[in-house]
Amino acid sequence: MTTATTTHRQHFASDNYAGMCPNAARWFQQANGSGHEPAYGEDRWTQRVSDALRELFQTDCDVYFVFNGTAANSLALASLCQSYHSVICTSVAHVETDECGGPEFFSNGSKLMLTEASSAAGKLGKLTPDAVEQLVTKRSDIHYPKPKVVSLTQATELGTVYTVEEVRAIAAIAKRRHLKLHMDGARFANAVATLGCHPSDITWRAGVDVLCFGGTKNGLPVGEAVVFFDRDLSEDFAYRVKQAGQLASKMRFISAPWLGLLEDDTWLLNARHANAMATRLHTAIKAVPGVEVLHPPEANAVFAKLPAAAATALRAEGWRFYEFIAGGGCRFMCAWDTPEAAVDAFAADIRSACAAALTGR
Amino acid sequence: MTTATTTHRQHFASDNYAGMCPNAARWFQQANGSGHEPAYGEDRWTQRVSDALRELFQTDCDVYFVFNGTAANSLALASLCQSYHSVICTSVAHVETDECGGPEFFSNGSKLMLTEASSAAGKLGKLTPDAVEQLVTKRSDIHYPKPKVVSLTQATELGTVYTVEEVRAIAAIAKRRHLKLHMDGARFANAVATLGCHPSDITWRAGVDVLCFGGTKNGLPVGEAVVFFDRDLSEDFAYRVKQAGQLASKMRFISAPWLGLLEDDTWLLNARHANAMATRLHTAIKAVPGVEVLHPPEANAVFAKLPAAAATALRAEGWRFYEFIAGGGCRFMCAWDTPEAAVDAFAADIRSACAAALTGR
Amino acid sequence: MTTATTTHRQHFASDNYAGMCPNAARWFQQANGSGHEPAYGEDRWTQRVSDALRELFQTDCDVYFVFNGTAANSLALASLCQSYHSVICTSVAHVETDECGGPEFFSNGSKLMLTEASSAAGKLGKLTPDAVEQLVTKRSDIHYPKPKVVSLTQATELGTVYTVEEVRAIAAIAKRRHLKLHMDGARFANAVATLGCHPSDITWRAGVDVLCFGGTKNGLPVGEAVVFFDRDLSEDFAYRVKQAGQLASKMRFISAPWLGLLEDDTWLLNARHANAMATRLHTAIKAVPGVEVLHPPEANAVFAKLPAAAATALRAEGWRFYEFIAGGGCRFMCAWDTPEAAVDAFAADIRSACAAALTGR
Amino acid sequence: MTTATTTHRQHFASDNYAGMCPNAARWFQQANGSGHEPAYGEDRWTQRVSDALRELFQTDCDVYFVFNGTAANSLALASLCQSYHSVICTSVAHVETDECGGPEFFSNGSKLMLTEASSAAGKLGKLTPDAVEQLVTKRSDIHYPKPKVVSLTQATELGTVYTVEEVRAIAAIAKRRHLKLHMDGARFANAVATLGCHPSDITWRAGVDVLCFGGTKNGLPVGEAVVFFDRDLSEDFAYRVKQAGQLASKMRFISAPWLGLLEDDTWLLNARHANAMATRLHTAIKAVPGVEVLHPPEANAVFAKLPAAAATALRAEGWRFYEFIAGGGCRFMCAWDTPEAAVDAFAADIRSACAAALTGR
């Protein structure tokens, strides 16, 4: 067993256990230094970050800052559908499993239609054009909500990443069926880092209408950006944000840190590091007897089944991690600040715990 | 005219133009320094601040942290009434005039019933027991929403402060009519500073069921606390907060700065300073020809009518301030960090502008 | 005093105290006679009535049948605005005073913005272009819901009728301000009967986007029609109706009686009779000492102030009527079936009651 | 093939294809005969029916009349849970499959949690205590809606009937888990007819909190009753009904026909007849080659798989029926007025169609 104390230990539970990255912290401080600033986004940073995001995506998109991912996704979806419409997503989608009915609440009742978890794509947490087509053609009567949106998560909740071609294919079926395409990008940076593509390639150039660009897991203290590539869809969205309690009065503290993420490609560097740590962990444990990795990591998480006794032992040693959403396994999540040493220490403990579990000690 | 540049000028538009106070900033930094911390309030600060607030109020209240005042008020009200109920408040209440229908949205349709603005109390932005009684007895049929909550703002939107006796009297009629009592305390600290009472005296000891305790205007970067003195009313409120997109994942950044406000009575000192600056401004301009102060400031704002030309001239010089909610006048708002020099410079410019306006130059 | 018994007395409280008119009853019976019929509007009458309404209005409008006026108005308004929008109407509008927050509920929070009741038009229960303009230009910031709809009631809640020119003028300002125009036509037939115009003249030809055409007060047992003249606005409205619990399974019982109203201009004859009875009542009481008629009736109601003792005496004799919405007076409402004898008996009792009240007996 | 014309044919699609039963029609007529009557339930029938229902159930329950089943279920559920709660039901529950998201809309976002359709009970459309327990213990964190209600349908959507013991067992687990128990009784009469028990035995005596008692399918033209056995749960429910557009102004036309159902046990006789017709159809076709009856009918529907060509042929002959909810089979639904001759003709046509399909003609 390692001798690391459990205090201040880097955990593998969630990338939102991490703090603020230095660049974000610097801009946060700078925003405070200026004394009085107009509120509600009329400050000197908010416009600047919005422009920087437009530049990043190489298109004249509409940008709004909200407090967290549940709000970003829920408000985006609510702007794409009415209460009697439905949203197609996977059964492991964050909007389904971890937002406490936020999408239904903000839309005043829209239903989520879930694809089968047991298919090959489902096991990777992905939608496919066929799965979308199947759901959209399942019913056509007015006694069931009419599908209006496809929501995909990039990177997915199972640590995989849609290729550009996969997104394009889903966008094609969405367009043919008159569905809008929403991308939950809580870990969008991790996906771009993996794909090595331009951020526009995996979003509007591939057919995405609205992106919820995650800042929190990428190194911000608080805040996500909702990016409308189809600007017709963002009509009066500022009112929606305000009414929903998502307009920060001291907006500069939400927006300025984004400048820290965007300068010098910090967002990508943060994501690449997190991804590399997941790969490092995967490499270290994939051959460990008792460990069954579900699929190779494509972003910043490793999903693996461990002997129950091993998982229990690791927790007893102070490690924190989640049983993953679909049940029965473990999720090991790396962050922008996960040190190599923590990965190595955790891998060593996994090895010991599995050995002990298998030998029945 | 003063020679102050408009850049970095301290404004009198809103107390949310101010930044973070040093104590809040220190704790914010400290929260970041610790590396990984559990999310969603499981960190080491959130529990501590909650306990500190219970100690502050000398009662075992339930405490929840949300992102802003619209959310705090809307969620609190939604927990006190159903969609077919109504909320009694003044016509200048923030929940009515500045939350873009947030209370109606979060409650799924509750109506706000407004007291007359033209009464003596109305001109001071206050509810009275009689006004509440009048509204609650106006209708008793099912064709109009049933009154269920009284919402008062302390300090009020017109810069006045309810006395302990006034709150008690409203609470008495509320209790008799089976109404819950909500206090919008966006500037609660300013009211306590003015009254010199214990915070419990003006809240639960006076009959308040739920307080939205404003942190943002008091020196936080972001965040308000919803304090349930009647704990029966907060059943499952954590779910409500989560569903509504108001649960911070990196909660420590929202909660830790509250420790900065609470240590060494910083919240009170901040409020006292803001109040003092309003008094200083009032003293400086009340006798200026052309200036008609509406009522002496009791918190951190001065409400005054100025000659239209004077207001225009002041704006042209770079000063920012609001026309106040009820129309036709100006609101000059002071913050925790408003310097005496800024007050003096502003007062001087008001004097000059009024003189010029009256002489028709 | 008259000797009429209070049992089975025709009342003057509401036109929904009346039953079904013979033509409606005949078609209701006929619809039942056919045995099994497809549900949800696939029956042989629903399509036929929809076509008949299109013919009546001389345009290819979309028609939906719902159960009552609250639902008709609320669903129509919800289709015209989002939760962060507002609806401009008078302070006596049924949507404001008598639907228990239905519009706010169905729209998930839209606010009603009320015009002043004290203006000349306000006293007649009417909107004016100026009043609309004033409300729509009052605020332009995102902290208050954005006006999106004008809702007028035709005939009004105060028994007056908008002229074609008045509707056109309101429609013009609505169009210029990008507002949709909704007409609450709970007593639409009474208005058309008064104006003597073609139903299209006062609706789509005057700029109305959606009409809620009242059937209940005109002689149906249950049911109103929502008529979309701008068919773009009714996209997926059938889903909205279904989700909101307003789609009748045995639709024939809702739709078939409309054929009874539409055949031989029954709807107009019913309305003309009700209007004539109001005129008869007005003629009989306008000169009675103690009676102060507020304005001459233009539809099927008389609004008058009576000595308090007289109103009490009339109630004691078994007459039912409402104090009218704006307070302090009486509303005497006539229906399609109000007999002349009932009007005469009621007028006689009013005369006696006023005389007694004035002489203090 | 039979020679019956398709016109006026009795269908087997839905029991809401049937008209009004004679007793209901008689009372409907009688309600109209009386001239003016107070509105909104103040008439002479509504109170009487409410009392009659209390007598029927042998308890002092609260009774409300609404227009249809979607509204009855949605309003009842909304009164039992908040937006961040969830409702446990089967995957074939009408509230899930055929109300277009009504429950989510009226509750402002409550999620439905579905039991597995593939279990033995699932195949019969039933909940079990174990299935409820599994769902209620699945999650206990605030990131997923908290279970608050169990909703069962009696008779079920698959034509089966819960025994008294089965309801009691579900109620026991509900009580232990602090869940309210809702019964969708669109075909409650058919269930009581099958069980031969007292209506109280299968409702409040078994632990049901709220029953939606279906009138439409039992022979009414329009209308369902929401019956609260736990009167604490119906606080302000009248306001909820009004706001939701479910309060009939001419209430007598909704309530009076219920007197027709209740007199001389008409509701039971109607249900018994429908059930008997389903049994007759089952008997006639169960042994027909090609027909695979899924389970013996316990209420008024037969669920069976037919050769695809046979189903197509029957439709071509003018018979209407649904493919049943879970896919792949046919639902043959009998009504209070289905004649024996229609059953026999339909059975004969099924026999012919199957024979033709199997011989490939």
Provide the descriptors you would attach to this structure in a database record.
homotetramer, 361 residues, alpha/beta, Aspartate Aminotransferase, domain 1, Aspartate Aminotransferase, domain 2, 7-stranded mixed β-sheet, 4-stranded antiparallel β-sheet, 14 helices, 11 strands, disordered N terminus
Question: How would you sum up the global shape of chain A?
Answer: globular
In N-to-C order, the SSE pattern of chain A is HHEHEHHEHHEHEHEEHHHEEHEEH
CATH architecture of the largest domain in chain A: 3-Layer(aba) Sandwich
The spatial strand order of the largest sheet of chain A comes to: 1-7-6-5-4-2-3
| First-to-last CA distance of chain A | 14 Å
The average pLDDT value of chain A, as a whole number, equals: 94
The CATH topology of the largest domain in chain A is given as Aspartate Aminotransferase, domain 2
SS element count, helices of chain A? 14
Computed over alpha carbons, the radius of gyration of chain A is 21 Å
Count of domains of chain A: 2
Number of strands of chain A: 11
Quaternary = homotetramer
Helix content of chain A: 25-40%
Q: Largest interface: which pair?
A: A-B, 57 and 57 residues
Strand content of chain A: 15-25%
Structural class of chain A: alpha/beta
Indicate the low-confidence ranges of chain A by residue numbers.
1-7
CATH superfamily of the largest domain in chain A: Type I PLP-dependent aspartate aminotransferase-like (Major domain)
Query: In this structure, how is the largest beta sheet of chain A organized?
Result: 7 strands, mixed
Please give the CATH class of the largest domain in chain A: Alpha Beta
